[in-house]
């Protein structure tokens, strides 16, 4: 039977690569391969069912008790167990197991020598395991075959399934149980980093609607109703009694004072969004607004006292500390001056909603957006498992505003509506992406993974030795096969609630963040942001699902956290990488230029070859004719029989110039009139060239 994983990974994994069963037909010649394949197929199927449906552990029986006569032995009762490879381990009869001998064998195997039975294991604890074993038995002599290399001797004809006992150290055993929180941690990574991104996302979430409203209703007034009047009166009365005094307030009083400052400043800012006629109507409707100057003075006194205190002592959480500073800074700049701050309409509208946005807080929001986006992209790149196929593309496409340098904590620089809108849109997109990622991560834990373990020993009990004697046996902590599998047996009570939550979460898309809808005209009705500086509760189905997965129930094994190592790239390495990138770009340019030169050279070679094919004969003959004309008269240019050729060629033009047609008798040369003419010389290549030259 093959035991590799079937994907090219090799090894000794317990998964079967593929199942192939024999197919028989009439007239087939059966061999040992066909019959062995049938045995391997049925055995592998049975082991697969044991691994996947039940898991490793004790099915029944195999109770371990002290031996009747004491000593270093124990008694193992009959029973049935399954190992992680799916093998059935059946102990048919009660077995007396000599633990002392097994300990000695283990020590001998580890040291390579037998040190004897010294019984020095006082207080030592060991795990007693049972291990599956196969033995070839019943050898028979095979019949003679036509094989070139016959098998000598006898061959075992049976495989007997058996077992044997081993002892191991108490903490050497492998825990095959699986907590679903372990898989969740594998998806979200380090919990501290994940919580950092989620906390900043929650703080951004409390500002999203206010940012959308402020950027959309830049010239609109905010509604001042009875709830605002009650909040105005209550906070003003509290500040009258507590805002005065000298010195900074203690941390509890500072936190309470900051909340009252935020509430009163929101009411005053709503009042300041109206013009004089509108403010007059509000004073008639709510007589307490007639003392708005007193409210501004109380706010100024409270802000002065809060500035003189220690914000770290009052607000240990840095995220809430920035919000508290924004309350003081924005209140002093937008609500304390008489008439408000007409030059900062966006900041006044943020303060009117109870969500003050200072310059320092805007810089933190930009950094938070970049942190959430990078954390999401990092987790998506490392895990690569998500049910939303477009989640990474959407996250990478979020337009995060560039970071701002850290301003002074008391900076009152204003922002634009476009900046507010960009921050709100990026925050809304990343909030939806983060929720989608966490939902997929939580839902994926409900799908049990396949076990792949090489530890095939099954724990039966823990035994404690005192010298040479077993003094205690404990079987309560061993793995027990349960209906539905041992891997998920310990969290079955959670399963029903998790399934109910999964029906509402896992198979539905995460709804996007919808900006608030504003009326086309009239006052903008926006609720006051309650509890901005207090605890931010985590509620809803997703939070309950995450809590169920990560909070161990009594007796449940805690989820295993991952330890991630953070690598920091030194500046020298970064500079070298940039130089290497520049060199690579230069090499690419030079390679492109070289390819262009090679292409031009190949074209020129092709043209030259074409010219050679077109004019080989004419060019060669013309060159030969020019060589003959430029040579000395009477010079031999060939064999003796063709020696007169050059002379005739030289005389030809002269005869033509003197009226001779060429070829007649020449004075002082050639044969006499009564002498027979010599036979014509055989034409050579040079004579053909000259003839061509004369004709031309």
Structure explained in plain terms:
This protein has helices spanning 32-54, 99-111, 180-188, 191-216, 226-242, 251-272, 276-285, 292-307, 311-314, 318-335, 345-352, 359-383, 391-396, 417-444, 492-505, 541-550, 571-614, 616-630, 644-657, 685-695, and strands at residues 57-61, 64-66, 73-76, 79-82, 88-91, 95-98, 124-140, 155-169, 458-466, 469-474. The protein is an alpha+beta fold and 696 residues long. The strands form 3 sheets. A 4-stranded antiparallel beta sheet has the order 8-7-9-10. The protein has a 3-stranded antiparallel beta sheet with strand order 1-4-5. Strands 2-3-6 form a 3-stranded antiparallel beta sheet. Strand 2 and strand 3 (73-76) form a beta hairpin. Helix 6 crosses helix 11 and helix 12 (359-383) runs parallel beside helix 14 (417-444). The longest helix is centred in the last third of the chain and has 44 residues, at 571-614.
Number of helices: 20
- Given as residue ranges, the uncertain stretches (5+ residues, pLDDT < 50) are 1-6, 8-13, 565-569, 631-696
Principal-axes geometry comes out as: flat
First-residue to last-residue Cα separation: 93 Å
Question: Gyration radius, to the nearest Å?
Answer: 49 Å
Major sheet: arrangement of strands: 8-7-9-10
The largest sheet, given as strand count, sense and whether it forms a barrel, is: 4 strands, antiparallel
Name the structural class. Answer: alpha+beta
In total, the number of strands is 10
Helix % is 40-55%
Order of helices and strands: HEEEEEEHEEHHHHHHHHHHHHEEHHHHHH
> What's the average pLDDT?
78
Residues in β-strands, percent: 5-15%
């Amino acid at each position: 039977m093959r035991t590799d994983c079937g994907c090219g990974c090799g090894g000794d994994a317990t998964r079967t690569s593929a199942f192939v069963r024999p197919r028989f037909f009439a007239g087939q010649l059966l061999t040992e391969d066909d019959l062995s394949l049938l045995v391997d197929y049925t055995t592998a199927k049975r082991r697969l069912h044991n691994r996947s449906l039940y898991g490793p552990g004790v099915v029944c029986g195999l109770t371990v008790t002290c031996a009747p006569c004491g000593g270093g032995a124990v008694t193992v009762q009959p029973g049935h167990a399954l190992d992680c490879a799916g093998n059935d381990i059946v102990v048919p009869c009660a077995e007396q197991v000599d633990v002392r001998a097994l300990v000695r064998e283990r020590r001998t195997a580890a040291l390579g020598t037998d040190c004897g039975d010294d019984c020095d294991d006082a207080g030592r604890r060991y795990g007693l395991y049972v291990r599956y074993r196969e033995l070839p038995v019943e050898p028979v002599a095979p019949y003679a075959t036509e094989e070139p290399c016959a098998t000598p001797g006898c061959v075992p004809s049976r495989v007997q399934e058996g077992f044997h006992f081993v002892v191991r150290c108490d903490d050497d055993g492998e825990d095959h149980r699986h907590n679903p929180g372990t898989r969740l941690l594998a998806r979200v990574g380090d919990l501290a980093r994940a919580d950092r991104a989620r906390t900043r996302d929650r703080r951004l979430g409390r500002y999203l609607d206010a940012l959308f409203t402020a950027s959309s209703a830049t010239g609109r007034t905010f509604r001042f109703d009875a709830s605002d009047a009650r909040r105005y009166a209550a906070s003003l009365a509290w500040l009258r009694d507590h805002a005065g005094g000298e010195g900074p307030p203690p941390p509890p009083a500072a936190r309470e004072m900051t909340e009252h400052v935020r509430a009163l400043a929101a009411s005053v800012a709503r009042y300041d969004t109206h013009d004089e006629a509108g403010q007059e109507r509000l004073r008639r409707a709510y007589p307490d607004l007639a003392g708005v100057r007193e409210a501004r003075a109380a706010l100024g006194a409270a802000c002065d006292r809060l500035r003189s205190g220690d914000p770290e002592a009052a607000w240990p959480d840095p995220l809430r500390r920035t919000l508290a500073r924004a309350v003081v800074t924005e209140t002093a700049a937008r609500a304390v001056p008489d008439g408000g701050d007409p030059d900062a309409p966006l900041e006044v509208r943020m303060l009117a909603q109870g969500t003050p946005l200072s310059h320092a807080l805007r810089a933190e929001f930009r950094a938070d957006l970049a942190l959430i986006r990078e954390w999401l992209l990092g987790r998506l790149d490392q895990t690569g498992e998500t049910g939303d196929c477009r989640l990474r593309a959407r996250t990478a496409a979020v337009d995060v505003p560039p970071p701002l340098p850290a301003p002074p904590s008391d900076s009152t620089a204003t922002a634009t509506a476009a900046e507010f809108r960009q921050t709100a849109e990026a925050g809304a997109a990343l909030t939806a992406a983060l929720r989608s990622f966490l939902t997929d991560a939580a839902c994926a834990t409900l799908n049990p993974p396949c076990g792949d373990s090489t530890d095939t020993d099954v724990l039966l009990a823990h035994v404690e030795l005192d010298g040479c004697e077993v003094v205690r046996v404990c079987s309560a902590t061993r793995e027990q096969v349960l209906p539905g599998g041992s891997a998920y047996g310990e969290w079955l009570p959670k399963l029903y609630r998790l399934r109910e939550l999964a029906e509402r979460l896992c198979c539905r898309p995460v709804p996007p963040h919808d900006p608030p809808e504003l009326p086309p005209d009239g006052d903008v009705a926006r609720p006051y942001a309650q509890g901005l500086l207090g605890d931010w509760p985590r509620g809803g189905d997703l939070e309950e699902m995450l809590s169920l997965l990560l909070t161990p129930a009594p007796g449940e094994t805690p989820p295993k956290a991952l330890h991630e190592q953070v690598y920091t790239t030194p500046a020298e390495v970064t500079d070298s990488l940039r130089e290497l990138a520049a060199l690579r770009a230069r090499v690419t340019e030079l390679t492109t230029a070289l390819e262009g030169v090679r292409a031009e050279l190949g074209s020129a070679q092709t043209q030259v070859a074409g010219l050679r094919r077109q004019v080989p004969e004419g060019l060669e003959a013309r060159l030969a004719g020019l060589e003959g004309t430029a040579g000395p008269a009477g010079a031999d240019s060939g064999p003796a029989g063709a020696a007169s050729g050059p002379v005739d060629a030289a005389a030809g033009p002269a005869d033509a110039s003197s009226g001779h047609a060429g070829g007649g008798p020449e004075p002082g040369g050639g044969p006499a009139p009564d002498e027979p003419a010599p036979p014509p010389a055989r034409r050579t290549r040079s004579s053909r060239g000259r003839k061509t030259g004369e004709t031309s």
